[in-house]
Amino acid sequence: MSLARLGPVTLEAGVSRTNGWALLYAAFVTIGLVTGMAVLTPYLLTETLGLDEGRQGRALGTLTVVNELVLILAYGPLGALSDRYGRRIVYVAGFLAMATAYLLFPLAGSFEAFAAVRLLYALGIGAATGMYGTLLADYAVERDRGKLAAIGGILNGLGVVLLALALGALPAWFAGRGLAGADAALATGAAGALACFVTALLLWLGLKPGAPAATERLPLAAMLRRGLAAARASPEIAVGYAAAFVARGDLAIVGIFTVAWGKQAALAAGMAPAEALEAGRLPFIIAQSAALVWPLALLAVIDRLPRALMLALAMAIGAAGYLGMGLVSDPLGAGAIPFFAALGIGQISAVLGAQTLIGKSAPTDARGAVIGLFNFSGAVGILVLGVVAGWAFDAVGPAAPFVLVGVLNGLVALAALAVHRRVPARAAG
To answer: Which phi-psi region, left, alpha or beta, contains residue 355 (left: φ > 0; alpha: ψ -120 to 50)?
Structure first.
């Protein structure tokens, strides 16, 4: 039986090119719409809740904790549902939950109500991003999973640039057409909800239906035991868990605090909240534009370098990008452009390096447990770094979260290099 191909990627048996194209569309849309609310949240905290700037770092950190606690608790049930009923139905349900949350966020009259809506949004994120990562493994043959992850990374970046940043521009666009702040927020939420609903429909039509082949789904405690046992047996897996803790936190820091920093600077310059959000997106635009094109450079080496060496290189690039933020004084000035470009390159490098190492290092008989603990480590990383970064943003300064993550990236890079030296003959594939 011949296997379908999607460009340089060979698809698994039973996966059609239509299913593959649907997954690529999902790569473009999922992270863009998930990040869209991260871009909008600082604006909503100011415009709909009236939260002063001095408390927004802690508020963003609290919302990150809510988000990640839900993801940690929902991991097992969502995985079990996808095994029983299929990836498609869970993916679609996730986007419907996100659509509902987009509608409800602007209606929240208090921070507590906003956090409650965040619970629903987090469930949607967990379903959507979890199924995206699962389908990357389901749809490509093992030797091409790194390529598919890199292509997906390019589309992730493109989706963020075109979708998340378009959503971030809508409040000012609506305000420019006469809508008051609250009404502009409602209209923006409705636009985000519509995008989520249309995506749910398209994924329902394009993804492979039905339940996957029988797979083992472990309870959380059993997953942790088997995943830790695999780490004891393989230094590469152990450093992969550490990379997940840091790299997933990278995404949260960039998505939340670049916009918050830019908006803060714009408000200090005298702009109205909607205008400040539009101007404050500039650092995020620069970072994500760089992250969009950088995977093209990694595509040539990601499946060729030894696994741990690839991770060491990726995390070192990440460290350089994040530590450079300590040199930025004006996030909206022209001098900050190369630093935010380096930040985006560092972010995507760390994420792809971690994903590629764990995808290739996980043994067949414990793949589910290893990938599960990898995802769990990432969720805990976002939770911990979100809290610490939120405090640091308010108490130390807006560059502090980035410097913190840069130091952690550097430590993981050194650990990965040490692992590579211990197992220098380990192949990339």
So the answer is: alpha
pTM listed for this prediction:
0.74
Tokens of 123: 């469930």
Helix (H, G, I), strand (E, B) or coil at 159: helix
Tally of CB atoms within 10 A around 142: 13
User: Tokens in use for 69?
Assistant: 């606690």
CB within 8 A of 33, min separation 6: which ones? 95, 98, 159, 163, 164, 192, 195, 196, 199
Give CA–CA dist 286/147, Å, rounded: 25
DSSP 3-state of 10? strand
Distance between CA atoms of 171 and 181, rounded to whole angstroms? 8
Contact 383, 293 (CB under 8 A): no
For 92-139, how does the pLDDT look when each residue is reduced to its tens digit (9 = 90+)? Answer: 999 999 999 999 999 988 889 999 999 999 999 888 988 887 788 788
The CB density around residue 322, as the number of other CB atoms within 10 Å, is: 30
Domain boundaries, the chain: 11-207+216-422
Asked if 245 and 377 count as a contact pair (C-beta separation under 8 A), the reply is yes
Residue 9 DSSP code: E
d(CA 21, CA 33): 18
Residue 6, strand partner residues: 9
pLDDT tens digits for range 135-160: 887 888 877 777 787 788 778 878 87
For residue 281, how many other CB atoms are within 10 A of its CB?
24
Q: What is the DSSP string of 165-196?
A: HHHHHHHHHHHHTT--HHHHHHHHHHHHHHHH
SS3 183: helix
Neighbours of 136 (CB within 10 A): 19
Which homologous superfamily is 11-207+216-422 in? MFS general substrate transporter like domains (1.20.1250.20)
Distance, in Å, from the CA atom of 349 to the CA atom of 401, rounded to the nearest integer, reads 18
φ and ψ at 386, to 5 degrees?
Answer: -60, -45
Q: Which residues contact 425 (CB under 8 A, 6 or more apart)?
A: none
Contact present, 246 and 381 (Cβ < 8 Å):
yes
DSSP state of 4: P
Measured torsion, CA atoms of residues 68, 156, 129, 216, in degrees rounded to the nearest 10: -120
